[in-house]
Amino acid sequence: MSLIKSISGIRGTIGGQPGDTLNPLDIVKFTTAYAKFISETSATAKHEIVVGRDGRISGEMVRSIVCGTLTGCGFDVRDIGYATTPTTELAVRMSGAAGGIIITASHNPRHWNALKLLNAEGEFLNAVDGAKVLEYAAKEDFLYADVDTLGKYIKDDSFDERHIESVKQLQLVDVDKIKKAGFKVCVDTINSVGGVILPKFFKAIGVDDVTILNGECTGDFLHNPEPLEKNLGGIIKEMQSGRYDIGIVVDPDVDRLAFICEDGVMFGEEYTLVAVADYILSKTPGNTVSNLSSTRALRDVTEKHGGKYTAAAVGEVNVTTKMKDVKAVIGGEGNGGVIYPESHYGRDALVGIALFLTSLAEKGLKVSELRKTFPNYFIAKNRIDLQPQTDVDAVLDEVKKMKWEDAQINDIDGVKIDFTTKWVHLRKSNTEPIIRVYSEASTMEEADALGKQIMDIVYKSQR
Fold first, then answer.
1. CA angle in degrees (0–180, nearest 5) for 21-22-28
2. Extended beta strands in 83-132, E state
3. Could you report the per-residue pLDDT of 140-196, keeping only the tens digit for each?
4. 22-74, pLDDT tens digit by residue?
5. What does DSSP assign to residue 17?
6. Pick from 126, 115, 119, 110: which is nearest to 7 by CA?
7. Distance (Å, whole) CA 81 – CA 435
8. What CA–CA distance (Å, rounded) separates 353 from 203?
9. Which residues contact 195 (CB under 8 A, 6 or more apart)?
């Protein structure tokens, strides 16, 4: 079974049987459930929902079903076509719509797709609201519009330009400095919507020397679309030619962002947020937030600038909720997700690029030199395989109750054991009988050893 239902939406592989994959019948069901939820809860006067999609091969099929279903539910549909996740989020706010659906499976392979659901603020549904949509979908108690109350279909291609302009207008983005720096940039847009918006974006912010790899928006991804070093051999080789100042990689829906140094060495996806936060905090001191599985380098940088760092449970909506609670000036996730409230409460690679390039231009450093200014940590990622009948919560509770010398325990999302110089985070998967084990230390060897130590403890407890 590859249909995954969660509070943030529904995702799955294309084709197969109803209830088992992402297919036309299930797309109609979950779109209708979302429309019913919006209809019952929306406080906006505009009975309209924004729909945007990434470049996936299945995107047109899914888009036509989603738009038709929404109009059949009586909603006007503003179809913004090929659009990044942050563009769609902003389009909801800019148009005053009641909500939005993003058709994207983010970093998943080409045979996946998904519906990501937004509220009227252009933000992901919270746990309570997401659970309500799933409840409606399970009951299938639906009533569709009659012929006189069908919604209208509106095609609107204006939001790429409006998104770009909004980034240019951010106070801490300096287009003149970026242009004067004369950056030579190589970008991998992985055959999706980054190839549509980023060429226009770079021209708008004063970057004229740009080489685009995998720029055709075909959805036929040339490599695994997750922006990790093991998947980026092509752009890394191109960077090693010495012709560029910086390499930039986005995922298919352009909400994750990774940089590559001028010599072809990865800047580190964990350090995308760290670098942007350091720049923001140098101009507007304040608090920061990332999730429990992100590098503590953000904490170090935040405290250096006199702010307070707070960890949130994993998941973008959890991070944004905590950011609002502590009035964070910058936050995000260690997977290369930058959330800058001055723009909007969503991960946005365009915002991250503009702020990073402004910082780089202002400091007059090479990318590799900038990386050396931050604390150096390494994260190891492991997993504990369990039997399907294993009580994962009981396992995590057992780990939490163990005596850990000189360690702080955080159990808001699994169990995080935070030592003075390192940490390990265990959290259960929502889709597999496994526990994910992330650990961080000053060397990769030490980080991996810590993770393996905890894994051994868990395995022994299961014998």
1. 125
2. 99-103, 112-118
3. 999 999 999 999 999 999 999 999 999 999 999 999 999 999 999 999 999 999 999
4. 999 999 999 999 999 999 998 877 899 999 999 999 999 999 999 999 999 99
5. S
6. 126
7. 38
8. 13
9. 55, 189, 212, 214, 215, 216, 217
